[in-house]
Structures are given as C-alpha cells and as structure tokens.
Design a protein that fits this description.
This protein is α+β, with helices and mostly antiparallel strands. It has 3 domains: about 10-120, Integrase, DNA-binding domain (Double Stranded RNA Binding Domain, 2-Layer Sandwich), CATH 3.30.160.390; about 130-210; about 235-420, hpI Integrase, Chain A (Orthogonal Bundle), CATH 1.10.443. The chain has 19 helices and 8 strands. The protein has helices spanning about 15-20, 45-50, 95-110, 115-125, 130-145, 145-155, 160, 175-180, 190-210, 235-245, 255-265, 270, 310-315, 335-350, 355-370, 375-380, 390-395, 400-415, 420, and strands spanning about 10, 30-35, 40-45, 55-70, 75-90, 280, 290, 300-305. The protein is elongated, with a radius of gyration of 35 Å.
Amino acid sequence: MAEKRPPWREYLTDKSVAGAKPREGKADDVVWDVAVVGFGLRMQASKTAQLRGKPLLRKTWIVQKRLYYTFDESGKRTGAKWIKRRLGSYPNMGLGKARERAQEALGHVEAGDDPTIARNKQVQADSTTLGRVVEAYLAYQEQRRPKSHAWYRSRLSAPGVRALYRKPIRDISKRDIRTALNSVDARKHPVTANRNYGALRALFRWAISAEYLAESPVVGAWAPVEEDSRDRVLDPHELAAVWRAAELKNAGVFGPVVRMLILTGQRLREVSDMEWSELSGLDGPAPTWTIPGARAKNKSAHLVPLSPLAVRILRSVPRVGARYVFTVRGENPFSGFSKAKRKLMRDSHTANWRLHDLRRTVATGLQKLGFPIEVASAVLNHKGPTFTGVTAVYAKHNYAEEKRAALVAWAARVGEICEPILD
C-alpha cells in the first residue's frame, strides 16, 4: 500500500506555479496555498501522453472547505463533508485571478448562500418526512408550552396521522389530511375529531414558519364537526348533588378539588396543581391564594381571595408532602380526572356536564348576585376591557376587594344551596 503523504503546502507565486509538478510517485497531486486556506493547484499527469513518452500536466485551480465532521454512534469521528469547486485551468487563469475567485467562493460558503448548500437544503427539505417534522414540533412545544406537550403528542400520534409519518411533508395533500381526519368517526367522537384537526392545523402553521413548506394542506379543510359554543350551567339541584358526591369519602383527593372549583371559579389545572406555598393568611381576616404567572393561562399572576368555606376545605385536606395540596403520594399533583369525573357523575346522578362548566356556573352565579361583569371577569382572571392611550397607563385596578366580596357572597350562596350538606 502506498505511503500516505502529508498535504503539500507553500506560498504560491507565479514562478512556483509555472514550475510545479506532482511529487514523485504521484500522477495526481495538489499544492495548497498558505495565503488562502482551502485554495490550491491540482496537477494531473495525462496517461495517454505518458504512454507516448511525453509527460503532460493538466493544472487546475481548485478550492475546498469542510462543512462538518461525521461521527458514529460511539462519538468517534468517521469522516467529513466537504464542498469542492473547480475555479478554472492554468495558464488560462492566472494566480491573481484564481486567488480572487477562491476568496469569493469561500465567502459564499461562509455566508451560507453557496449554490450547493442551497441544493442540499432543498433536497433535505423535499425529503423531510411528516414524522420528523412532528418530532421537531413537539420539541418546540415542550419548550414553549410544557403543559400542552402531552396533549399535542396524543393528537399527533392518532392512527390517521401516524399513517402519514413516512411521507415527505411537501407531498402531503389536502386529500391526505381529509383521510387522516376521517380516521376518527366524527359522529361518535366529534370533539376528538375536531381536536385532531386543530392540532394538525397548528403543526402545519408552525412548519411554514420553520420553512419546511410554503403552503399548508390543512387550509381549506373544514373542521369535521361544527361545534356549538358551550353554555352549560349547573342548576342549584345539580350543584348540590355534585357537592354532595364530592364530599363522599370515596371521592378521595378529587372531592376537595371539585369543591374548590365550585368556590373559586378557577381553571382545573390551576386548582389541581395548587401548592401550599401559594396560600397565605389562612389564619387571618384576608386569606388568599396567589396563582403564579407561570401557572396561569394568561401568564399573569392572579390573586384569589378565599372565603371561610374555602379555607375550611383546605384545612381538611391531609398534608401529604411539602409541596402540593391535592396529591396522593406527595410527589405529583392529582391527575386522572376523566375516571374520577365519571365516578362523580354516577354518584351525583347528573349527566352532560364538564368540569369547566363549573367555572361558567360560578360566573353566572356572580352575575345573579348582582356583581358587574368586570368583577366576574377579574375573579376568573380573564383579560379586562381593552384601553388605549393615556387610559391604558392608569387603568390598573386589580379589583382585589371586589373579588373578595364576590367570592364570599358566592360561598354563602353555595352554602344556601347545599345547606343540608353543610350543617
């Protein structure tokens, strides 16, 4: 086997280029310029000329640059990816012009606008499968909205969507989207079908921003089912039945979660993930629960005044661990809402309501008690009226006192509705 020689490097001059020839034993050799890294002169001996006894060299200006190294699974470097260019032949192109062309070509590579890089990116984009884009999108969601990550993974792992994983994303058509959506029977599972549609729409909208494709195939594909805006509010008899079922011993940790939903009107995860450190003044005249902005839907910290009834419920919760209020083992907040809610509906003999409907029930109850809509919105941590100009600078009232009066009055009303239970 021929001995591998180190690269030949020197400062090229017109004189050295004119007299350059391959090193002994090599018919194809390169001398690299030390002035412009990656630029050199390639010398190739013509075999047909050598057969005639007349050595003939073909000299060509070249430039090359390493883009990246390649590694195996153990992390060992196995090779590298290079970009190589032929700039012209010598003596048709002189040394000065060749150096100028080399610097220009290397500049294009550094800037990322080299034609080969563009072609490689295009080929890679054309062959990127939906499965790879889904994984990239889920990684993005995990960083941006950790709590929604599991929801998106579940929706984008539906059988109809997974069937398209191996297909290049740029080849996915509107018909493919419709087929994926039709894999769920919208008549039996209308909400699931619509949520899958929403997840796909969000995925492709993100894929456009990430330059995986130019147009979304979901555009023009209607949602499987037209959903009506929910207006379900539990009547007093239903509310009393739910409260009674939530007080049963077999309701477990879910029982006080439901009762706090009824008393505070806050969102399910905000209540279920409540931490002891968020509670203050439970022994004083103005007990409060502060939901940090990191846990609030609108990213704004929210102060929830606690009524005496709410404090009484919190004090009845066994303290398991130092962090979460509603927990089974102390390590994580309570979960398993679907199963617990089905049992609650059976025990309360109620039907056709969701946990989020309790929030609407609270808002409706506050209005019936005579509290203005802006106070109810403040209790629910909804964004208030939009102000502009100078008004927006000064309209910073947080309705703290109004919220306390509203929730204390609402707790009293709940006590009236559930009077046989609370005695």
